[in-house]
Amino acid sequence: MSEKIILLVEDNADDVDLTLRALKKNHIANEVVAVRDGEEALEYLTATGKYKGRSLVDVPQVILLDLKLPKMSGLEVLRAVRADPRTRLLPVVILTSSSEEPDIITSYQLGANSYIRKPVDFNQFMEAIRQLGLYWLVLNQTAPANR
């Protein structure tokens, strides 16, 4: 399972740390690439900018995407991911604090595979990450990578 990469797109350092702790506590040993804004997420996915030269063969098994990001919003990232033939089939899970109906609707309209509101309670957050990891990294069968 450790060969499956998780791309975590989150600007809040505390939420990054909490997510990493939850993954570790739930024995999800996958490599996690954490990026802090939408532009960096797209650079990682397209092997440009600071990720120039990165192999495009190593695609994330799942993208955990916050909506409220600097430089480029999560919805803009999602739109770009779905527009690029190299990334359009990657599973994207919106992991955000927003429970606003327009955010949920727009996320699904743009092709999100799942929308999870981050629980405020620590134990509930741990359980949400456990279930997310079980489903997206173990049970779900992803589409073959576009090469």
Describe the model.
The chain is α/β, with parallel strands linked by helices. The chain has one domain (5-139): Rossmann fold, CATH 3.40.50.2300. The protein has helices at residues 13-25, 38-46, 74-83, 101-109, 122-139; strands at 5-9, 32-35, 60-65, 92-96, 114-117. Strands 2-1-3-4-5 form a five-stranded parallel beta sheet, sandwiched between helices. Strand 3, helix 3 and strand 4 form a beta-alpha-beta unit. The protein is globular. The mean pLDDT is 92.
For the structure shown, list the relevant keywords.
Rossmann fold; alpha/beta; 5 helices; 147 residues; globular; 5 strands
How is the secondary structure organized here?
Blueprint: E1 5-9, H1 13-25, E2 32-35, H2 38-46, E3 60-65, H3 74-83, E4 92-96, H4 101-109, E5 114-117, H5 122-139
Parallel strand pairs: 1-2, 1-3, 3-4, 4-5
The percent range for helix content is: 40-55%
Query: Radius of gyration from the CA trace?
Result: 14 Å
Molecular shape: globular
How would you write the strand order of the largest sheet?
A: 2-1-3-4-5
What portion of the residues fall into strands of 2 or more residues?
15-25%
The CATH topology, please? Rossmann fold
**CATH architecture title:** 3-Layer(aba) Sandwich
Question: Could you list the spans in which at least 5 consecutive residues all have pLDDT below 50?
Answer: none
